[in-house]
Design goal:
By secondary structure, the chain is mainly beta. The protein has no helices and eight strands. The strands form three sheets. Strands 1-2-3 form a three-stranded antiparallel beta sheet, with no helix packed on it. The protein is elongated. One of its GO terms (molecular function) is hydrolase activity.
């Protein structure tokens, strides 16, 4: 997934674990790192999963603000929503990743 200006990129790889890498203008900013969450019952979200759906969305809007030097602020970002299924549990969870234009 790319940032709106195309300079920042997130790569997501789903194998035994969910891993992600962050690049800025094709230079590694954050090396490949695992992404997971452990629930109170010990279930680990991010291990032994498959992606069951993915949805990209671009949002471009604006909103009024009385506190900024401009009357309206541009709100432009890309999102990637991934739905994962945990192989061993046959249940699913959703993660949403967003890029905000700076």
């Amino acid at each position: 997934m790319l940032s709106p200006n195309g300079k920042i990129k997130i790569n997501i790889a789903v194998n035994e674990k969910v891993n992600w890498t962050l690049l800025n203008e094709n230079h590694f900013f954050l090396a490949t790192s695992p992404m997971s969450m452990t629930l109170h019952d010990g279930t680990i979200l991010g291990r032994n999963t498959v992606v069951t759906s993915a949805k990209n969305e671009t949002v471009k809007s604006s909103f009024a603000t009385p506190f900024y030097k401009k009357k309206r602020v541009q709100d432009h970002y890309n999102t990637l929503t991934l739905v994962f299924t945990i192989i061993s549990l046959s249940s699913s969870f959703v993660t949403k990743i967003s890029f905000i234009k700076f």
